[in-house]
Amino acid sequence: MKVRNAVCIFLAALVSVSLLVSCGGADDVVNPAADTTADAAESSETVTETTEPPSYVPEGLDFEGATVTLLGGDAVFKHYTMCTEQTGDGLNDALWDRYHKVGEQLNVTFDFLSENSTGAVNKITSTVLAGDDVYQLAIVQRATSIGTMVGQKMLTNWNDMPYINLDGSYWYEDAIDSLRVGKFVYYTYGDIYPLSTHVMYYNKDIREAYSLDNPHELVLGGGWTIDRLIEMATAVPKDLNGDGQMNENDQYGISFGNTDQINTLMYGCGLTITTKDSDSVTLSPRTEKMVDVFEHIVNLFHTDNATYYKQLNKVTLVTGQVLFYTGTIHGARTYRDAEVEFGMLPYPKYNEEQEKYVSFLNTELMCIPSIADRELSGAVIQLMAENSAGVKEAYYDYLLKEKVARDPESKQVLDIIFGNAINDFIISYCGGMSNSKSMYNIPANLAIAGNSEFASAYDRIAEAVQAEIDSVYETIMQSDK
Predict the structure, then answer these.
(1) Is the pTM of this model over 0.70?
(2) Angle subtended at Cα 21 by Cα 20 and Cα 27, rounded to the nearest 5 degrees
(3) How many helices and strands, by DSSP H and E, does the chain display?
């Protein structure tokens, strides 16, 4: 099989990264069957069999050399999806093997086009309007335009696609459900394109110097909470140069480089801006817990110089001046050469009674242009998903190598990070609407300003936000008309 276009050798440097963690997401594609133990009278030996689940793509499909073009709307697409030749790099070659196997079985070749976020949306729009079936799968940023594309009937409902089985372990059920509206699934997440979430990195040297609890152990024991974060972050700020001022030259408990990283504290505590059921999407009601979480976030920013925040963050993991640094998993490749020993953590829970850690996704979304040939796209996408176990394993290997994960807890922590990753309707579908955007940014805006008046900020725009949600919801529900 041929895989065309020139861009893909990235990966050796890509996430060889010093990422602490050990990335685990959805269950592996290959599942061990149950152990079978012979009758004790005959044998006490246990026999274990391993079987692969059957493919949902029938044998014998032949697309006669058709070109399958994957469209990406982010620079990361080049690193995690594009592949034109074998290079000896683990992740690159795992991608090659996947495309080779799918290409051989279905008699297709692969091509790739990488655009920026606006360019990808424009490509989808222009080809659909022109009736040109060019892209069989698109990977686009979570951005203001994804709701618009649904309303303009630019995309296909994944539930209408032949061959695709969204119940397979290679698709991420919780993440997909967070974007599902009634019977409509226009965007998905899965092993085809590795997940990335907002995470916290921690500096092992600073932690040890101050004899603080091991965050990995806290996570695994269920005790990594926002109170523990504040306790640890407020223990380490230091005026390193002794000039009597706290600035980018000093040491902090935690640093943030953008408002998304701040707002994710809300999701880690188990809150979402919208609440979704089978037939509605509503603004989550203001509760005492919500008020308390926002007060915690403000306290983190304004207690004992614990927090450093700048849009152009100069206090980073690499500088070695911060105990906790907020970032993303996909961004880990940029820490490959860091001299700091560090680990990776999920965002903290609200309290120990909260059942799960929650990770907020910043991964690009997979979608299918409405003009795409459904037989071709469905077969290729499903077969890619079924053959992505090796890609996911190689991706995890990158996250686990070198400084990132030299301890046995790392794999478990990554499994936790990926085990409950969600999105929020208001961010993905209403993010370009003024009131919805303002509601999403309340945590960051209050924290930066040192203002704890969450209730009034919420109440002031709640009705307008619900109107925006209702408008988008109705548009999606009418998208097949």
Answers:
(1) yes
(2) 165
(3) 18, 17
